[in-house]
Write a structure and sequence with these properties.
This protein has helices at about 15-25, 35-45, 60-65, 85-90, 105-115, and strands spanning about 5-10, 25-30, 50, 75, 95. By secondary structure, the chain is an alpha/beta fold. The chain has a single domain, classed as NAD(P)-binding Rossmann-like Domain (Rossmann fold, 3-Layer(aba) Sandwich). A 5-stranded parallel beta sheet has the order 2-1-3-4-5, with helices on both faces. β1 (about 5-10), α1 and β2 form a beta-alpha-beta unit. α2 runs parallel beside α3 (about 60-65).
Length: about 120
């Protein structure tokens, strides 16, 4: 059975990219440059999953192009998802995930550190 395909829009830590490759056919953005709307549309159209970051605006046109192709899920690398058109995802039945609570401990630690510095 073929592994699902994932397009990663920006560079991730090397260990994360390596782990992804164990389970998925991964296409990486080796240049780590912001991709154009057309590049994102083509990526989602030709892959089962799109893995953007907060720097990528995922609008209805990108979501629609995924639905007309292979696109099934947008898995955001980061806490937020305000850069993803959730209404369009619901309309085209595209699943969306993110990494909630990933910054909770770091934020608490930094807050305590700043209070101790005063």
């Amino acid at each position: 059975m073929d592994k699902p395909s994932v397009f990663v829009t920006r560079r991730w830590p090397e260990i994360a990219e390596k782990e992804l490759k164990k389970y998925f056919n991964v296409t990486l953005n080796h240049g780590d440059k912001a991709l154009s709307n057309k590049e994102l549309k083509d990526a989602f159209h030709n892959h089962d999953a799109l893995a953007p970051t907060v720097s990528d605006t995922i609008d209805e046109n990108i979501i629609k192009s995924g639905k007309s192709g292979k696109g099934k899920i947008i898995s955001n690398y980061g806490v937020g998802f305000s850069h993803i058109d959730l209404e369009a995802c619901q309309k085209y039945k595209i699943k969306v995930t993110n990494t909630p609570n990933v910054l909770t401990d770091a934020t608490a630690d930094l807050t305590i550190l700043l209070m101790l510095m005063v």
